[in-house]
Specification:
The protein has helices at residues 12-31, 62-70, 73-82, 103-109, 114-128, 137-156, 173-182, 185-188, 197-212, 230-235, 256-266, 301-314, 352-363, 397-409, 419-427, 435-441; strands at residues 93-98, 132-135, 167-168, 220-226, 241-242, 247-248, 252-255, 324-328, 331-338, 341-350, 371-375. By secondary structure, the protein is of the alpha/beta class. 46% of the residues are buried.
Amino acid sequence: MKCENCTKKECSKKQKNDDSQSASVDALSSNDGFEEKNEFYALANAKILLSDCLACDNCMTSEEGARVFQQNQKELFRILNLNKKCDTSKHKVLAVSICPQSLPYFAAKFNLSVNDAARRLCGFLKSLGVHYVFDTTIAADFSILESQREFVQRYQRRNQEEHALPMFASACPGWIRYAERVLTNLVTSHICTAKSPQQIMGSLVKGYFARQQNLSPDKIFHVIVAPCYDKKLEALREDFYTALYNSQEVDCVLTSGEIVQIMEQKNVSMKDMAEVAVDSLFGEIKEGDVVRHDGKRSDGYLEHIFKHAAKELFGMDVKEITYKALKNKDFQEVTLEKDGETVLRFAAAYGFRNIQNLVLKLKKGKFLYHFVEVLACPGGCLNGKGQAQTEDGKPDKALLNQMEEMYAAIPVRLPETNVHVQKMYQDWLEGMDSMKVQETLHTKYSAVNQTASGLDIKW
């Protein structure tokens, strides 16, 4: 979806700096020993087009553009090549974390089960020289649990604090970028402070796992495989950077489609790869079968928070949630009734048309919802622009339908039942109410570079 703040096919700020960025990337590559013409020289440099970047409103600075430009397959192979050099002081432990919404894409594309796709993708990455392959589901466990607790706290403070409710989900970087760069603090103050699964995974890998392996965080190069391009921008946020070690929590984000490009460049298919069990953060333990959260097309923040709030605030056990479609299938409502009164009203708003309508209602003081799961992609995370696209950049509807069926068939595991998460709260995070939890699992969002015409855009 193109943002009409800009009528160009490519972000104007990127166009103006294209040549200088190419030069800087080439210089960086050669300085670090990356051969200019290796077997992957044909791979394209990373670009974020308006048709891909749901956050774009001419807000990407030239510095951000240059750094996004480096987040591509060549950066992965730069590290792989460095690890082959004799100078071991420059070697990195290469860890790749895979988002669960990427797995149905690989499964559908290569006609595999989701579990087979996970293991064969792990096998492929390790055949390249990757040391560890993780599943980000555990990071989503933490993010959901922290979001649940924050919603209950906000609800209980709703009569004392003006901006306590509604609460907006914080997992989607496209929505966060739009809120911070275009909207005002009236909106950003309502965004949940829990980090997204991607960035919590960064904290887990560069914090918990690094400590378990006796590694400095800067000795780990952490790659995320994700469905969308906006996660590249999220990885660059200053609040996800540790100055002490000069280290980002996530060093590089590659889309599912970019991983397939590597396979095509090597002329291999996932069906040809050996099955290798996905690693866990806990020593020699390996991950079992793939699990997901309650959401049908995302990590399911709405369903988990709704059920938790119903239990904690009103003593009601909600087993099944009934969605009511409103203006379109990407704008749905869920309510909880008690004694003839609506005590909870949640919504799922996917795509910027629905998001803008919600924001306008909030501005006018006509907002009815306590919580909104906001996702920039119509159809949710499975429909991320980094996967399931046809050659002309449109959604591959047949493939997407297959992916949705596969994702819905994955067994659900409640984050509360993950024993590793509960143990890490006590052993690593010093308890659920500790300062370390706030520092590690939370951040703050605020409006910057506000544009007066932000709400006049026609999506």
